[in-house]
Amino acid sequence: MFQAKVINIQKYSIHDGPGIRTTVFLKGCPLKCWWCHNPESQNFGRELLFYDERCVGCGKCVKRCPNDAISIINGLAITDERCVLCGNCVDFCVNNAREIVGENMSTTEVFDQIIKDEMFYEESSGGITFSGGEPLMHPDFLLEILKKCKSRDIHVAIDTSGYAPWDNFEKIIDYVDLFLYDLKHMDEDKHLKYMGVSNDLVFENLKKLSSFGKEIYIRMPLIHNINDYDKNIMSCIEFLKNIKFSQLNILPYHKMGKDKYRRLNMKTYMEELESPSDERILEIKKMFEDSGIKVKIGG
Questions:
Q1: Per-residue pLDDT of the chain (299 residues; tens, 9 = 90+)
Q2: Does the CA dihedral 196-199-201-202 come out positive or negative?
Q3: Which one in 2, 129, 182, 249 has a CA-CA gap of 20 to 30 Å to 28?
Q4: What are the residue boundaries of the Radical SAM core domain, all occurrences included (predicted)?
Q5: What is the CATH number of domain 47-100?
Q6: What's the DSSP call for residue 21?
Q7: What is the dihedral of CA 4, 9, 15, 20, to 10 degrees?
Q8: How far lies 122's CA from each of 22, 108, 127, 129, 214, in Å?
Q9: Cα–Cα distances in Å, from 50 out to 44, 78, 118, 189?
Q10: Which CATH number fits domain 3-44+102-297: 3.30.870.10, 3.40.50.720, 3.30.70.20, 3.20.20.70?
Q11: Is the bond leading into 133 cis (omega within 30 degrees of zero)?
Q12: Is 192 strand, coil or helix?
């Protein structure tokens, strides 16, 4: 039985594929996108989220820490590098100012949560979506749980950046109904700058996936002055002419999740970024539609 670190199991999700869905967020991603709104999904290990606005400096966590890793500084309980993420401080924080993200769960434990909402999937033509992070970083876990889903005829979607070994795709492809596939930038240098990795593997995997005849929704985040200019849009259109897919979802940038960076003590660029104007979003939508591409704004 395989395990993976799970960040969250979100019930009644309506933006991660058709119908009412349960979305399972797995931890770990090889990309470091500037606009990532789930920064807690990037690291493969457990992490501590600290909600400084909730902390009253009562010191209960200080007393409970076995490694003396917490000190009261300027009225806040600050954690240092001696923390081993044991969770004692979380258990004794009366204001829920501390949270460990990344719980090891087995395929059976996750599946037990999934089937609780099986009735909603059937009535809405929904199902289960695996997201992250990058779910394809956990191919053995996915394979085991996807087989369970298919045994109950549950619709399965995989939300992926496309940046994973093709072997990982091949391992699970027979058990997936829909791929939600990100295209973030067509320019390799900019992809390296804003995502931290090349886009070659993303393009190569999408071409291969397209040849399998699986349903694919292309998802393109739109960030002003990053990827919303004509040259990038036209490059995307030219590339997609050779890809078989059902629709393109354009996702205007939002700042949701920016507070998580402070809670994780991570650097963020989110404040520097903006969404394109409503007018520009509609212009981009028309550019795709004029090329014969079915477009939806939003998830």
A1: 899 999 999 999 988 999 999 999 999 999 999 999 999 999 999 999 999 999 999 999 999 999 999 999 999 999 999 999 999 999 999 999 999 999 999 999 999 999 999 999 999 999 999 999 999 999 999 999 999 999 999 999 999 999 999 999 999 999 999 999 999 999 999 999 999 999 999 999 999 999 998 999 999 999 999 999 999 999 999 999 999 999 999 999 999 889 999 999 999 999 899 999 999 999 999 999 999 999 999 87
A2: positive
A3: 249
A4: 15-294
A5: 3.30.70.20
A6: E
A7: 120
A8: 12, 21, 8, 15, 21
A9: 18, 9, 34, 35
A10: 3.20.20.70
A11: yes
A12: helix
Q: Enumerate the CATH 3.20.20.70 domain ranges in the chain, comma separated.
A: 3-44+102-297
Residue 116 token pair:
């609780």
Amino acid at 151: S
pTM for this predicted structure? 0.94
Q: What is each CA distance from 293 to 157, 162, 204, 238, in whole angstroms?
A: 21, 20, 21, 11
Specify the 3-state DSSP secondary structure of 284.
helix
Q: Which residue has the tokens 């007018």?
A: 279
